[in-house]
Amino acid sequence: MNNIYLYNNDLISLLSLIKVLLKNKIKPDNIKVIDYNKNLFDNLINLNIKKDNNIINEFIKIFGINNFKTIYYIYISKEDNKELIIYYYLLNYFKYKERLPYMRNLKCVSKALEIRKRVGSEAHKMKGFVRFKELSNKVLYADINLDNDILYLLSIHFKNRLKNECWVIHDVNRHTISIYDKKDFYIISDTDLKIVDNISDREEDIENLWQTFYHTIGIKERQNDRCRMNFMPKKYWPYLLEVRDEL
To answer: What is the 3-state secondary structure (H, E, C) of the chain?
Structure first.
């Protein structure tokens, strides 16, 4: 039988569970969210651990900010068994301490750093790929399709980048929305908010100007589609004003 430990679907619950597992030297076969569909040979274990809202600060103090950033990036990734990767990464910390990120011969470390790099790369790309349009209520709206759950990271970036605007970023893949009101942002389900879908009077003119600018500065003889797709993957094109008409 596989012992599968369950947690509520949030980071604090996961860290609270891992803290108990590490403290009691329990090595789980896997860790899954509480609504996990069990297989025939799974033994589901719910310890009903009370959430510790101070656990993030505690983990940063114990493992350091760099290691915590690594496990956070793993948590928001789309990786299967990401919870188990986090567990074994932290378990090995007690043996290797500050040397852990350099122990790339360990499978859990190499996998963790690979995921961190991949998530960080998408977050970096999307800071340049998000395209806002102005709605009739003067709110800036952008829809995006994210591989990893990086909406929080993007929200922090645009809170600083567009701090004097009201904006909405919609992750259509996970059906979540980040709303910024010129003070702070809030992430909610897209079923909890009706988006005004009509654009402002000047938005069409702005879009036409941007498309004209994009095509004007391009040099047709030097166009390299393969190179462009390396930097701007085609999966993002439906959400990029300047290239979506090429699909």
So the answer is: CEEEEEECCCHHHHHHHHHHHHHCCCCCCEEEECCCCCCCCEEEECCCCCCCCCHHHHHHHHHCHHHHHHHHHHHCCCCCCHHHHHHHHHHHHHHHHHHHHHCCCCHHHHHHHHHHHHHHHHHHHHHHHCCCEEECCCCEEEEECCCCCCHHHHHHHHHHHCCCCCEEEEECCCCEEEEECCCCEEEEEHHHCCCCCCECCCHHHHHHHHHHHHHHHCCHHHCCHHHHHHHCCHHHHHHCCCCHHHC
Write the burial class of residue 87 (CB in 10 Å: 0-12 exposed, 13-18 middle, 19+ buried): buried
pLDDT digits (tens, 9 = 90+) for 181-222: 999 999 999 887 777 678 888 888 888 888 888 888 888 878
Structure tokens at 79: 């990786």
pLDDT tens digits along 22-36: 999 999 999 999 988
Separation between Cα atoms, residue 237 and residue 148, nearest integer Å: 17
Q: pTM of the predicted model, to two decimals? A: 0.89
Could you give the dihedral angle defined by the CA atoms of residues 112, 3, 20 and 13, in that order, rounded to the nearest 10 degrees? Answer: 70
Dihedral sign of CA atoms 203, 208, 211, 217 in order = negative
Can you tell me the distance from the alpha carbon of 51 to that of 24, in angstroms, rounded to the nearest whole number? 17
